[in-house]
Amino acid sequence: MFDLDRWNEIFETIRKNKLRTFLTGLSVASGIFILVILLGIGEGMRNGIAREFEQDASNLIYVFPGVTSKEYKGLNPGRRIQMKNDDYNKILLLFGDKLDKSASTFQNWGRVISYGKESGSYDVRGSFPAYQTLENISLMSGRFIDIHDVENSEKTMVIGNRVKMDLFKDKDPIGEIVQVSGVNFKVVGVYTDPGGEREETRTVIPITTAQKAFGGGNNIDRLYITLKPEDSFDEAVAVSTQFSADLEEFLKSRHTIAPDDNSAIYINNTLENAKRFFTLMDMIKFFFWGVGICTIIAGVVGVSNIMLIIVKERTREIGIRKALGAQPMSIIGMILHESIFVTAIAGFLGLIFSLALLEFVGPAIETQYIYNPTVNFTVAINTVFILVLAGALAGFFPAWRAARIKPITALRDE
After folding, report:
1. What is the pLDDT of residues 404-414, one digit of tens each?
2. How far is CA 350 from its chain centroid?
3. How many CB atoms lie within 10 A of CB 35?
4. Bigger pLDDT: 296 vs 123
5. Where is the protein found, in the record's own terms (predicted)?
6. What CA–CA distance (Å, rounded) separates 320 from 197?
7. How far apart, in whole angstroms, are the C-alpha atoms of residue 362 and residue 250?
8. CA angle at residue 267 from 263 to 270, to 5 degrees?
9. How many angstroms from the chain centroid is the CA of residue 3?
10. Is 63:267 a contact under the CB 8 Å cutoff?
11. Which phi and psi angles does 336 have, rounded to 5°?
12. pLDDT band at 258, cuts 50/70/90?
């Protein structure tokens, strides 16, 4: 029930001790401010990591060969491993029931592509239609290479937006002919990539065309694979990890590589990487919560000390109240009321300032691993509960001490 007299007492106490109340509230406000900002940064780091993984398919596994580092079955170390079309075909046969999307690539680095008077050096990748999904490519115009292009070794090309801007400027490139090391290709599509401009300096052609036109034979450079979805993230990670191990064992056996040779075949599993990063983010977020809570506790201790001083100053008043029949719970309620009020107001100000800072400054923060730091509604509600609890804790012990004051002792207090 609203008690006007009690509120008048609280405001009168605050008016008499403006500086003390301000400094006390500042400690609480700064604690909430630091907590919310830290949680916002933690969420921004999580967003940044998630954005990095968005550059490719979320459950992508890609494989590329290296050089052997150990002697095995009479073969010397230092052999460069070269994967072939047959490797890819065998994988499709052995693991086909587990695969969702797959593609192999034959890469040509630094090929000169020219159109009219314009030319530049770009990466030309030969691959399959599934490469679009595996690399999370979005078409801006035209189409991607299709299975007909691959089966007939068509000289078709999909170019990145950066290539289009360099060679064609404002002109529509669809249907135009470009030259790659003297070989004509027809541009059928333009794509954009979430990985940014660096990814858009590449071009994609049918893998069969790339192997024939640029002396690749039946060589392939990389394998891109995604697995069929699972019911949960943890289950998907477990299946993906086991598949990576089986795939590595198969390739090592096929190319006569020592089982413990870790430099001959490299398998990068984005789900495993994501789990490691997100686990790290959860630990960082937990650490931020700890730092923020400790800062709030420091503020609460300050409030509690101030309330003890207030109780000491009002000892005679409390004694008179008890002599006139005031119950202990009434005394406790009076002290708690003031403590919660000061803590809540200061905390809400800290919360509002921190949320405003994240709202206006957060979208402008865009580094490699921090993106759009925010705090969601649930976290904001949790901080409100923390404020109320902090105020109650700050005032409880001083209030309990006040309630135990004996009237005769209090009336003798000077």
Report:
1. 666 666 555 55
2. 26
3. 28
4. 123
5. Cell membrane
6. 77
7. 47
8. 140
9. 49
10. yes
11. -60, -40
12. very high
Residue with tokens 């801007």: 165
Look up residue 364 and give its DSSP letter.
G
Number of Cβ within a 10 Å radius of residue 329:
11
Cα-flanking dihedrals φ and ψ of residue 220, to 5°? -130, 155
Q: What count of Cα atoms within 13 Å lies in the side-chain half-sphere of residue 364?
A: 5
Instruction: Specify burial of residue 178 (Cβ count, 10 A radius: 0-12, 13-18, 19+).
Output: buried
CA angle in degrees (0–180, nearest 5) for 56-59-64: 70
Strands 83-84, 219-220: pairing kind: antiparallel
Instruction: Give residue for tokens 């309330």.
Output: 307
Candidates 396, 398, 400, 394; CA nearest to 31 is 394
DSSP states along 168-235: HTTS--TT-EEEETTEEEEEEEEEE-TT-TTGGGEEEEEHHHHHHHTT-TTEE-EEEEEEPP-SSHHH
Q: Is pTM beyond 0.85 here?
A: no
pLDDT at 1: 46
Query: Bridge-partner residues for 265, per DSSP?
Result: 65
Distance, CA of 334 to CA of 27 (rounded, Å): 22
Q: Mind listing the pLDDT tens digit for each residue in 86-143?
A: 999 999 999 988 898 999 999 988 899 999 889 999 999 999 999 998 888 899 999 9
Which one-letter DSSP state was computed for residue 136?
T
Label residues 61-87 b or e (16+ Cβ within 10 Å = b): bbbbbeebebebeeeeeebebebebeb
- Strands 60-65 and 222-227: what pairing? antiparallel
Distance of CA 113 to the CA centre of its chain: 37
The torsion angle over the Cα atoms of residues 291, 292, 294 and 297, rounded to 10 degrees, is 180
* pLDDT computed for residue 56 by the predictor: 47
Q: Which residue has the tokens 């990670």?
A: 237
- The helix (H) or strand (E) run that includes residue 113 is strand 99-115
274: its two tokens: 């994501």
Q: How many residues does the chain have?
A: 414
Using one digit for the tens of pLDDT, what is the confidence trace for 237-255? 888 889 999 999 999 999 9
Angle at alpha carbon of residue 252, lines to 127 and 75, rounded to 5°: 115
